[in-house]
What we know:
The chain folds into two domains: about 5-210, Rossmann fold (3-Layer(aba) Sandwich), CATH 3.40.50; about 220-284, Helicase, Ruva Protein, domain 3 (Orthogonal Bundle). Helices cover about 40% and strands about 20% of the residues. The chain has twelve helices and nine strands. Strands 4-3-2-5-6-9-7 form a seven-stranded mixed β-sheet, sandwiched between helices. It has a two-stranded antiparallel ribbon with strand order 1-8. It is elongated, with a radius of gyration of 21 Å.
Amino acid sequence: xxxxxxxxxxxxxxxxxxxxxxxxxxxxxxxxxxxxxxxxxxxxxxxxxxxxxxxxxxxxxxxxxxxxxxxxxxxxxxxxxxxxxxxxxxxxxxxxxxxxxxxxxxxxxxxxxxxxxxxxxxxxxxxxxxxxxxxxxxxxxxxxxxxxxxxxxxxxxxxxxxxxxxxxxxxxxxxxxxxxxxxxxxxxxxxxxxxxxxxxxxxxxxxxxxxxxxxxxxxxxxxxxxxxxxxxxxxxxxxxxxxxxxxxxxxxxxxxxxxxxxxxxxxxxxxxxxxxxxxxxxxx
Length: 284
């Protein structure tokens, strides 16, 4: 069997099907066996696991996943890749291919159908143009997920795991911190892909918490506050919250900041997740 991690095999498949990369789908296929092996090892996949893969491309990572997992469900939006996947994955009987947009797929139903409703693991080389919406859908959705191991643009990985006061800290950092323990497990250079992206990449693993690290009356309201706080990074927290659709008065916000012993000129980027949870509960 030809493993697609070898560049020669990838080129042969692309030529066989006269495949043209489509910019709209952010297609960059991995061609480094070492990186593929590291992703599999560090994702912690076992023989009893059901794995959800997003954007399989021609099936490079899918092959490696199928060797380790009990079952792999892979979701590909590009119709042109479906016949290629039927070819490259023909030696496996533990793969289900779904031709759909991952943001329109009922992941909970996939879990019910293929893993008896038990938590699945997500492993993927995500399209960079739509990374954040996919990650947020996975985190905020109601599907049971054990962990998310994804290749993303390096600067996005940095945003996912950074803390208060850093230039990359923002709404995505706080959302990830609320739902998961995040750790970059691998940095990947552009020459590991075909075609080569213009940016560096990282593989980040999000181990989903059984219970969030902070208790808050309304997570939805807290994240509305967080998004408003970071809409205009150069604004103070007070002005950011006033500019949103939260219906808050300056007096009310300043009263709560005083109660929290925070400066009235503090910016959102200075607050921890715990402080945003307290702010949310006091303002609600």
